[in-house]
Specification:
Layout (H helix, E strand, L loop, with lengths): L11 E2 L2 E2 L9 E2 L2 E2 L18 E13 L18 E8 L5 E2 L3 E2 L6 H13 L7 H16 L3 E7 L9 E12 L3 H4 L9 E8 L10 H12 L12
Family: Belongs to the Nudix hydrolase family. NudF subfamily.
GO cellular component, one term: mitochondrion
EC number: 3.6.1.13
């Protein structure tokens, strides 16, 4: 309603990224239209921006190991069990990947690392010295080879007809378990609890997060389901 508000949709608007990861979207009467369809809610709703709202979801994983350091396989499938760092969201009480919104002008890679530090390591409450130590430990994990699990529109409870969530989910895998062993997990600003959780299809996670986790298990050849599914 502000007369001075004239966003440049479908392009980089100053520092704000208004392009969609899924390509061009329709703008009708000055309002962007949700590319997936109607939601039953008009306007911006609870989201910060009209059109695409960009988030980043770091999926940090390791193999589940016994006291001797050996990988633990699932008794039914024989596949190794993968664990990921999950937070329990304060706003809805659901378990989720410790992600968050991309700041204007911020690179996705920086958002992924920053959100992980803030949500899972409570870096905002740390002293400069403690923060520097965390940075050093995390550098190894976040600078190694990683893979993009998903990029694009996500089914989120906050989506409206004119504003929607998009994310880039990236898997950072600690193959040996050494990079993450000494990191002190501590819930940050939006998280009530943070911990390593065993991955399986029984997990009930926030929004589209279960889909991202499943894609990671497929990529890593880890256990997901006891049900073998239909035979080919």
């Amino acid at each position: 309603s502000d007369k001075g508000f004239s966003p440049k949709f479908n392009e980089k608007d100053g520092e704000v990224e208004r392009r969609s990861l899924n390509g061009l979207y329709v703008v009708e009467n000055g309002r962007p239209r949700n590319p997936v369809g109607r939601t039953g809610l008009t306007g911006r709703g609870l989201l910060g921006r009209w059109g695409p709202n960009h988030a980043a979801d770091p999926v940090v994983t390791r193999w589940k190991r016994d006291g001797s350091g050996n990988k633990i396989a699932h008794p039914v499938t024989g596949k190794n069990i993968l664990q990921f760092i999950a937070i329990k969201r304060r706003d809805c009480g659901e378990w989720a990947i410790p992600g968050g919104m991309v700041d204007p002008g911020e690179k996705i890679s920086a958002t992924l690392k920053r959100e992980f530090e803030e949500e899972a390591l409570n870096s905002l409450q740390k002293s400069p010295e403690e923060k520097a130590e965390l940075e050093k430990q995390l550098h190894k994990l976040f600078s190694q080879e990683h893979f993009v699990v998903y990029r694009g529109y996500v089914d989120d409870p906050r989506n409206t007809d004119n504003a929607w969530m998009e994310t880039e989910a990236v898997n950072y895998h600690d193959e040996t378990g050494e990079a993450m062993d000494n990191l002190p997990l501590e819930a940050g600003d939006d998280a009530g609890i943070v911990k390593w959780i065993d991955i399986s299809e029984k997990l009930k996670l926030y929004a589209s997060h279960s889909n991202f986790i499943k894609l990671v298990t497929e990529k890593r050849g880890a256990h997901w389901s006891e049900d073998p599914g239909p035979e080919c």
